[in-house]
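Reading group handout, session on sequence-to-structure problems. Before we discuss, look at one worked example. The prompt was deliberately terse, the way you'd type it at a terminal:

> structure TRAP transporter small permease protein

The input record follows.
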Amino acid sequence: MQALLAVSRGIDAVTAFVGRAVKWLILVAVLVSAGNAIIRKAFDTSSNAWLELQWYLFGAVFMLAAAYTLQRNEHIRIDVLSSRLSKRTRDWIDLVCHIVFLLPFVGMMVWLSTPFLIDSYASQEMSMNAGGLIIWPAKAIILAGFILLLAQAFSEIIKRAAVIAGLIDEPYPQHAVPPLVQESMGGDQHGGRGR
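And the output record:
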């Protein structure tokens, strides 16, 4: 299990690096958007390429940050239900759902996105909009995002199994107790550990 935990730590390091790096794409998207608006207002001209670049940047942030969101345990949960369950039950639900739902879905998306990208690259597919950008870099970001999410799913399965087995502490103790339970307990409870 220690070898698997080492693999998990490596995946987590890559995911964290990418997750922290892509936040700068938000700034770039804002600058591109502002520049496009200024040029349009000041010079009464615009380009579909600038608009499409904004879409590419937004898509890149969304796709490449998905694995980081999963790693940080910040994905959406139904707290109304999960807050009523024990930590061990939630851990088992996470483990089973990652194996039964997340892995097959993300694996299928990697499988389907690969020929999608290859065909686009081979044909040098261009946007149908006048002055638009080439399409394959956006499709490459889709594939990269799903590959990163697939790797992170494996990492989360390894960590969750290790937590259940008592081999490691909760990686994100602030999520050990759902917010509703924290409130009912009268404060900031983290399963006995601090942030």
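Points for discussion. First: The two ends are 25 Å apart (CA to CA). Second: Residues 35 and 41 are 10 Å apart (CA to CA).
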